[in-house]
Design a protein that fits this description.
By secondary structure, the chain is of the alpha+beta class. It contains 4 helices and 6 strands.
Length: about 140
C-alpha cells in the first residue's frame, strides 16, 4: 500500500510579480513563501520548488545510503548529504548534484563508492528525477 504525503500552494497574482505560500500538510511543519524571484534569482528568505526538491533528494539519498550500508553490514557514524538542484529559466531543472561526506568505521574506499553509487541509482527521488543529470561527489571521512 502506498504512503501518501501532501503539500499545497496558494498563489496570488501573475508569475513575475505574484507570490505564493507552500504548506507541508502531512507533517504540519510549516508554511513557506515562494516567488518567481526566489526561484530565478535571490532567495531572500523565500523558498522554491528546486530547494524543496533538493531537500527531498538529500534526505532520500541519505536514507538509501544508510540502508545500503546496513545491507553490507556497516553503520555510519554520520552521513552528510548536500543536494544542489539547478533551475534555468526557459529550460527548467537540468541537474541535481549530490555531495556526500560520511564517517563509516571499517569501510574500504571501494565498498564506500559502490554503496554510494547504488544509493544514487536506487533512491526513489533519484528515480523520480531520471530525466535530469544526477552527479555524485562522495568522500569517505576517517
Amino acid at each position: 500500500m502506498a504512503t501518501i504525503r501532501t503539500a499545497h500552494t496558494v498563489w496570488n497574482g501573475n508569475l513575475m510579480e505574484g507570490s505564493g505560500r507552500t504548506t507541508l500538510d502531512t507533517s504540519g511543519l510549516g508554511t513557506y513563501d515562494v516567488t518567481w524571484k526566489a526561484r530565478s534569482a535571490d532567495a531572500n528568505g523565500k523558498t522554491s520548488p528546486e530547494e524543496l526538491i533538493a531537500a527531498a533528494h538529500s534526505a532520500c539519498f541519505s536514507m538509501a545510503f544508510s540502508n545500503g550500508l546496513a545491507e553490507a553490514g556497516y553503520t555510519a557514524d554520520e552521513i552528510n548529504t548536500r543536494a544542489e538542484v539547478d533551475f534555468i529559466p526557459g529550460k527548467g531543472i537540468t541537474t541535481s548534484k549530490l555531495t556526500l561526506s560520511a564517517r563509516v568505521p571499517n569501510l574500504s574506499q571501494d565498498e564506500f563508492e559502490k554503496i554510494a553509487e547504488g544509493a544514487k541509482k536506487g533512491c526513489p527521488v533519484s528515480q523520480a528525477l531520471a530525466g535530469i543529470e544526477i552527479t555524485l561527489d562522495a568522500k569517505l571521512e576517517s
